[in-house]
Amino acid sequence: MAMEMLEAMEVLEDQTWLDPTGDEVQKVVSRVLAHERPTGMWLDNLLNGVWLGHPLHPVLTDIPVGAWTLGLILDGIESVTRRREYAAGADVAVLVGLGGALASAVTGLAQWQYTIGRQRRLGLSHGLVNVGATVLYGVSAVLRGRGKRGAGKVTALLGYGIVTIGAYIGGDLVYAHRLGVTHVPETELPNEWVRALADAELAEGQLKKVMVADVPVLLVRQHGQVYALNEVCNHLGGPLSEGTLEERCVVCPWHGSRYALSDGRNVNGPATFPQPTYEVRIHNGQIEVRATKASE
Ligand code: FES
């Protein structure tokens, strides 16, 4: 069963005919959420969950899945007991799920806009499947409102089956494609000082990548002060050494996440996590780094 599911995911990832649609949708979303405009950046940060310290989309997807599961149970009880109060509860659950599905769609688009290739195709499939489920639940709500409860229940049941497939694809995006999780490598700096670079080799305003004990470290000198952060952007793995240096911040070259040099705080997204930073000292003409006290 597991192998069949994995193969099904690979089939979806190979659907290149989705690419032109993906291009168009991405263009529209990235235009609306463009970081060049303060409102665009504010909205992108809001929808990606920068304020939450965690991607917002997976939080909201629990609403339709939970509400529609409850609706299914209440529909079942009502069918068996014929007690009307269960029907009212099921109808409310369907409507709550619809609200949650709309919020999930908007936040999902904000997160998906940064994907490429197979990840993007799978994300688009996830979205289309869930749109199908939401439409069925919308039809179910209308049927229920018109007193056609039997048809409304059947439509909801179909929608539930489809949303379950959508949820599986969403899980695959996170666990197999690492969408929404940190892309910082798991290697850690030792707690002892380690030589990173000769002090003379780091010019003012320079972003330089060095490997220290298998950890990719970004060294930056600004206003004479040297800073060290993990070089791999936690959002989707962009190379921060190829980014741009701003006042007290480094900006990722891929999607514009901005990290404070002093503590790695994500000043703006789409990254929802802070970037790991390291302690730095100049010793005998060498720049040395070590794990920060917090991670010791
Ligand atoms: S990889 Fe997306 S902001 Fe850095």
Poorly predicted regions: none
Strand order, main sheet: write it out.
1-10-9-4-3-2
Largest sheet: 6 strands, antiparallel
Beta-strand share of residues: 15-25%
Q: Helices and strands: which structural class?
A: alpha+beta
Straight-line N-to-C gap: 43 Å
Shape category: elongated
Query: What letter string, H or E per element, gives the SSE order?
Result: HHHHHHHEEEEEEEEEE
Q: How large is the radius of gyration?
A: 24 Å
Share of helical residues:
40-55%
Number of helices: 7
| Mean pLDDT over the full residue set | 94
User: How many E-type strands?
Assistant: 10
Oligomer: single chain
Ligands bound, unique: FE2/S2 (inorganic) cluster
Number of domains: 2
Task: Describe this structure in a few short sentences.
The chain has 296 residues and is of the alpha+beta class.
Break the fold down into its secondary structure elements and pairings.
Layout: H1 2-13, H2 19-32, H3 38-48, H4 57-81, H5 84-112, H6 117-145, H7 149-175, E1 194-198, E2 207-212, E3 215-222, E4 225-230, E5 244-246, E6 249-251, E7 258-260, E8 266-268, E9 277-283, E10 286-291
Antiparallel strand pairs: 1-10, 2-3, 3-4, 4-9, 5-6, 6-7, 7-8, 9-10
Helix pairs in contact: 4-5, 4-7, 5-6, 6-7
